[in-house]
Amino acid sequence: MSRLRLALFDVDGTLVDSQGHIKASMAAAFAAEGLAPPPDAEVLSIVGLSLPNAIAQLAPDQPPARIDRMVAAYKDSYAAMRGADAAASSPLYPGALACLDALAADDHVLIGVATGKSRRGLTHLMDLHGLAPRFVTTQVADDHPSKPHPAMVEAALAATGVAAADAVMIGDTSFDMEMGRAAGVRRLGVAWGYHAVPALEAAGAERLATEFAQVPALLHELWGE
Q: What angle do CA 90, 179, 74 make, to 5 degrees?
């Protein structure tokens, strides 16, 4: 009997291009405290971390109480942008749906999510794009330490019963690759997201996809098939 495999996807910058909402909400969080917003490149560099960690990195000299207020302001701004144009503002990357459907059609492949988003944020995106039925496990920042801590991946392995050697973390940031390496799973970096390819390779990416059409074949390479 063939053993089960797990393809574990990051969300922002991997499945969905949500940078418009992320940058606008971060600017709103800083403005709420009378602070100048950080450059866009700095904002994108922390995508993948849990929100409190991300804001603390962008505003390292601010006290915890102020960070907490900025987190709340970010969430309020992000929620306010969830409207009729949300799908256009946070689109799936080209080929994402076809890739997920191809993997879901394989009885020996399970699909999951490991994201720095909140449960509320992930549910919104899943509903927006009709993705939920494809995923058997969804690990979010509400329940775990921030990436690159391996807890999200370890929880996904426990939930699915898949061995670490048969799981692949797919993501666009060094945090995804470091998390996967810490959990002992294989790592597939994607080049269309928010961190540069050299950063992915330095963090432990074993393969690199430049378009979604390559992902299934690269996964099977990592699974030794």
A: 40
